TrEMBL record:
Pfam families: Arginosuc_syn_C (PF20979), Arginosuc_synth (PF00764). GO terms for cellular component: cytoplasm. InterPro entries: Arginosuc_syn_C, Arginosuc_syn_N, Arginosuc_synth, AS_cat/multimer_dom_body, Rossmann-like_a/b/a_fold. GO terms for molecular function: argininosuccinate synthase activity; ATP binding. Pathway: Amino-acid biosynthesis; L-arginine biosynthesis; L-arginine from L-ornithine and carbamoyl phosphate: step 2/3. Keywords: Amino-acid biosynthesis, Arginine biosynthesis, ATP-binding, Ligase, Nucleotide-binding. It comes from Shouchella clausii (Alkalihalobacillus clausii). The keyword Translocase does not apply. This is argininosuccinate synthase.
Length: 72
């Protein structure tokens, strides 16, 4: 490994709001599948996908229909 490489971890180092993150993505032409109208935070990668939102945090409460954006 190169000890001169600088590790960037924006999620940990920058304390941006969701609105600021979306604005940054728009300004830098980074495609994101969400907007400010959606209450959900969606993370997806090779190993899985997760949706987060206040209403989804209670395992005893049924999720609302709009939480399922990949179903038909």
């Amino acid at each position: 490994l190169n000890p001169d490489l600088q590790v960037l971890a924006p999620v940990r180092e920058w304390s941006w709001s969701r609105e600021e993150e979306i604005e940054y993505a728009k300004q830098n032409n980074i495609p994101i599948p969400i907007n400010l109208d959606s209450p959900y935070s969606i993370d997806q990668n090779l190993w899985g996908r997760s949706n987060e939102c206040g209403v989804l945090e209670d395992p005893w409460a049924a999720p609302p229909e709009d939480a399922y954006d990949l179903t038909v």
